[in-house]
């Protein structure tokens, strides 16, 4: 019968195949928190006195991030931000959860409602952008999270991406040769344009999706119980199956692959490429862009111009 690797208890609940590790619940929770803490320290994600904005969506990953960071750094200047995109039922359900968890953690909460911009994501669904609604949604989220973090004088914007997310992104970018996206895929992406492009950090980048899920369950962290109605699932399921198949023959694939990306490929790629070079201020909103008008302002113009 397996014993907990750390305390020797026979109440083993968790088996982590990639590390051949069996743990009891208590030791797993400590193991998870130690891992997140070591990532934060290794990449100097929260230098002393830094104000940190956390993007919260009501999903398990961002709620786990919020809970773990607050537990590890109770005195940190932490501001959760929630974007209500106006997706019928779903957005309000998520907002309620975010309100609940921030209340429990006694954190201030910044809520932004997209309808204040004159449109919602449900409106986007009625236009020709319907077929690419997740692309438009991603653009809106990235823009507003960065802008709100900047306006609230945060020097870091933390997101709940875990190792599985990053490996899936990386595979996709490498397959399509998307060099710019490959260069942005790292635990800490530094700031630019005098802080207008807020530094992005991913404190969960070394924990797997399964570990995230277990941590949420064992810590009784609430998270959303319904899916976004626009999540069609086909592409997601295909990537999920591909990952499952790889992991059956190579359980440590995600760890090895992402380490190679960070330690072997990135340093060489970065030498020949300067990401920030082409940035300037959007002539409409003043936020960073490589074009005259940023992608968000162009999208907004198309959606709100009724002529
Ligand atoms: Fe946005 Fe929903 Fe698509 Fe997620 S699934 S990117 S919330 S539209
Ligand atoms: Zn703009």
Please give the structural blueprint:
Blueprint: E1 12-16, E2 21-24, H1 25-42, E3 51-55, H2 60-72, E4 77-84, H3 90-104, E5 110-113, H4 121-124, H5 133-151, E6 156-158, H6 163-176, H7 179-184, E7 188-189, E8 199-201, H8 209-218, H9 234-249, H10 253-271, E9 280-281, E10 288-289, H11 295-304
Parallel strand pairs: 3-4, 3-6, 4-5, 6-8
Antiparallel strand pairs: 1-2, 7-8, 9-10
Helix pairs in contact: 1-8, 2-8, 6-10
Bound molecules: iron/sulfur cluster (SF4) and zinc ion.
Zinc ion is lined by residues 282, 284-285, 287, 293-294, 296-297.
The class by helix and strand makeup works out as: alpha/beta
Q: Between the first and last Cα atoms, what is the distance in angstroms?
A: 71 Å
Residues in helices, as a percent range: 40-55%
Name the beta content range: 5-15%
**Mean pLDDT across all amino acids:** 93
Q: What are the distinct ligands in this entry?
A: iron/sulfur cluster, zinc ion
Strand order of the largest sheet: 5-4-3-6-8-7
Low-confidence parts: none
Number of helices: 11
What is the CA-atom radius of gyration, in angstroms?
20 Å
What does the overall shape look like? globular
Helix-strand topology string: EEHEHEHEHHEHHEEHHHEEH
Characterize the largest beta sheet: strand count, sense, and whether it forms a barrel.
6 strands, mixed
Total strands: 10
């Amino acid at each position: 019968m397996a014993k907990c690797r750390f305390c020797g208890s026979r109440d083993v609940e968790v088996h982590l195949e990639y590390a051949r590790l069996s743990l009891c619940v208590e030791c797993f929770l400590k193991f998870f928190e130690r891992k997140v803490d070591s990532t934060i320290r290794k990449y100097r994600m929260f230098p002393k006195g830094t104000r940190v904005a956390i993007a919260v969506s009501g999903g398990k990953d961002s709620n786990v991030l919020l809970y773990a960071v607050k537990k590890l750094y109770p005195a940190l200047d932490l501001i959760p931000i929630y974007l209500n995109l106006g997706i019928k039922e779903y957005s309000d359900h998520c907002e309620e959860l975010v309100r609940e968890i921030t209340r429990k953690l006694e954190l201030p909460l910044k809520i932004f409602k997209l309808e204040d911009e004159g449109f919602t994501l449900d409106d986007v669904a009625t236009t020709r952008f319907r077929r690419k609604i997740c692309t438009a949604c991603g653009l809106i989220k990235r823009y507003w999270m960065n802008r709100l973090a900047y306006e609230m004088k945060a020097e870091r914007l933390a997101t709940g991406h875990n190792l599985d997310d990053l490996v899936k992104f990386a595979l996709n970018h490498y397959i399509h040769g998307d060099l710019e996206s490959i260069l942005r895929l790292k635990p800490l992406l530094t700031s630019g344009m005098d802080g207008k492009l807020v530094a992005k950090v991913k404190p969960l980048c070394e924990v797997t999706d399964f570990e995230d899920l277990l941590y949420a369950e064992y810590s009784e962290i609430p998270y959303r119980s319904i899916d976004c109605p626009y999540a069609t699932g086909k592409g997601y399921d295909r990537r999920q199956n591909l990952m499952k198949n790889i992991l059956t023959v190579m359980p440590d694939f995600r760890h090895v692959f992402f380490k190679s990306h960070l330690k072997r490929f990135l340093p060489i790629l970065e030498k020949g490429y300067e990401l920030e070079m082409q940035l300037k201020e959007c002539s409409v909103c003043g936020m960073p862009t490589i074009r005259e008008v940023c992608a968000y302002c162009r999208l907004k113009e198309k959606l709100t111009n009724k002529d």
